[in-house]
Amino acid sequence: RFLNAGIGFGGGCLPKDIRAFVARAEELGAGSALGFLREVDAINMRRRVVMTDLVAQLCGGEVLGRNIAVLGAAFKPESDDVRDSPALNVAGQLALRGAAVSVFDPKAMPNARRLYPTLGYADSALGACTGADMVIVATEWKEFIGLDPASVAEVARGRHVLDGRNCLPREAWESAGFDYRALGRGR
């Protein structure tokens, strides 16, 4: 399920296990037979850069001075685990490019703050969206899937939503006036 099109997978197990499996195969002289796993890891890591570049593109070419809401910090829903989190990686890349990033996650806020203390954090999803030029859904929490697009439209400055997990109801967001994009599915 976590291999769906989108921002990519993270966590403390699968990425590490893929790399360890490739390393062990190389030690045994069978590394060339597992080249596809090396490519799986590379593609997965590039998804984060693709997401960051798409945000910049949708913001007119750069994110400097833009307010970006990132909904999700954990690498998967129903968890506070932020190890190798694609959501936080993207948030961090956007901040390094000069965006003001506001992150919200229902469970992972303390862990996210410890790993990324320079990011902005909100007390709610709508709080993160307040004044946002763009809203990014980076973890597929039920809370975010059920978020009322009209309520977001009342507090957000911009009308861009980037669905990094392909989980939002597209029609509802478009009906509320948002330019909806889903990473891996196109427009």
Keywords:
alpha/beta; 6-stranded parallel beta sheet; single chain; 187 residues
Give the SSE layout.
Blueprint: H1 14-27, H2 35-58, E1 67-71, H3 86-96, E2 100-104, H4 109-115, E3 120-121, H5 125-129, E4 134-137, H6 142-145, H7 149-155, E5 160-163, H8 170-175, E6 179-182
Parallel strand pairs: 1-2, 1-4, 2-3, 4-5, 5-6
Helix pairs in contact: 1-2, 2-3
Polypeptide structure, described:
The chain starts with 13 loop residues before the first helix and ends in a 5-residue tail after the last strand. The longest helix has 24 residues, at 35-58. Strands 3-2-1-4-5-6 form a 6-stranded parallel β-sheet. The radius of gyration is 17 Å and the shape is elongated. By secondary structure, it is α/β, with parallel strands linked by helices. It has helices at residues 14-27, 35-58, 86-96, 109-115, 125-129, 142-145, 149-155, 170-175; strands at 67-71, 100-104, 120-121, 134-137, 160-163, 179-182.
Ends distance: 22 Å
* Strand arrangement in the largest pleated sheet: 3-2-1-4-5-6
Tally of helical segments: 8
* Structural classification: alpha/beta
Low-confidence segments, ≥5 residues, pLDDT <50? none
Helix content: 40-55%
Biggest β-sheet strands, sense, barrel:
6 strands, parallel
What integer value in Å does the Rg equal? 17 Å
Average pLDDT, rounded to a whole number, is: 91
Q: How much of the polypeptide forms β-strand, as a percent range?
A: 5-15%
Number of strands: 6
SSE order, as H and E?
Answer: HHEHEHEHEHHEHE
Shape: elongated
